[in-house]
Amino acid sequence: MNIENLTLCEKIVSPSYIRQGSQARRGHEQLIRHLLDQGKCPEEGWSESTVELFLNELAVMDSNNFLGNCGVGEREGRVASSLVARRHYRLIHGIGRSGDIAAVQPKAAGSSLLNKLTNSVVLDILKISGVRSVASCFVVPMATGMSLTLCFLTLRHRRPKARYIIWPRIDQKSCFKSMITAGFEPVVVENVLVGDELRTDLETVQRKIQELGAENVLCVHSTTSCFAPRVPDRLEELATMCAKYDIPHIVNNAYGVQSSKCMHLIQQGARVGRIDAFVQSLDKNFMVPVGGAIIAGFDESFVQEISKMYP
User: Which N-terminal residues, if any, form the signal peptide (predicted)?
Assistant: First the structure.
């Protein structure tokens, strides 16, 4: 409540009680103010009441919740079921615009603000998790495989002659299909057995680059988190190789945010060589429902280019 309404409340209930309630609410508002000011992940998690207060404050900023509003335009948030509306805290519009997922939606100031804050907080989390030099990221409503496809499709505009993606093998279908769906031919590099671990065959990767011609290779598609006995790819060496041959490098970091080792490998790879983007799943790392991912990178302009590719 604003100060005028609180003053009116004091005419109905004892002013001392109203002041206590006002102070309690101010505690919630201070947390929200800190988030708006810093755009970083809170050191201590919010209570559900603070989260719900904030979401409701944002929701009333969207035009579908304006009092007396009747949306009849092409881009209106309309939901038939009140159950569905409540489930989404009446944030009905969605985010972005048809040309850019990162753009502000004019009729949804609250949803747009929530999106900007989400990307800012997630960027902070990636830095805290070990990738200190990450420059930009954004959340997409797609699982990891489709998010990788989006990265490959963006690279197509930069490397129109490229047909191949060099991929150290991992036995998981979605990352394999992500390359085929984007229209490229995966060049599968078998791993080598080192002790009781399967590791990246760097010699074969380099030989494939030389055989195919660097200009015909869209990127190297490496992996951090995977199933035993395979260990994370040798990101530092691959990143150095990509820098040497001027080939993009996309990292499948599906499970990796929760692993300091995986995040360290990405940071080191970017430091010594080239990593253009790395993709991680929301459900695996943040324990939310399946169907979201984070696309991040070290060149802000390239990450923005990917976001503008989102249809």
Answer: none
**pLDDT value for 190:** 96
What is d(CA 206, CA 213) in angstroms, rounded to the nearest whole number?
10
Tell me the β-bridge partners of 108. 62
Rounded to whole angstroms, how far apart are CA atoms 172 and 167? 12
- Give the integer Cα–Cα distance in Å for 181 and 88: 31
Kindly report, residue by residue over 171-183, the tens digit of the pLDDT: 989 999 999 999 9
Q: Which residues of 114-149 are buried (b: 16+ CB within 10 A; e: fewer)?
A: bbebebbbbbbbbbebbbeebebbbbbebbbbbbbb
pLDDT, tens digit, 9 for 90 and up, residues 34-90: 999 999 999 999 999 999 999 999 999 988 888 887 777 666 788 889 999 999 999
> 5: burial class by Cβ within 10 Å (0-12, 13-18, 19+)?
exposed
Q: What's the CA gap between 222 and 233, in Å, rounded?
A: 6
Residue 244 corresponds to which tokens in the numbers above?
């040497």
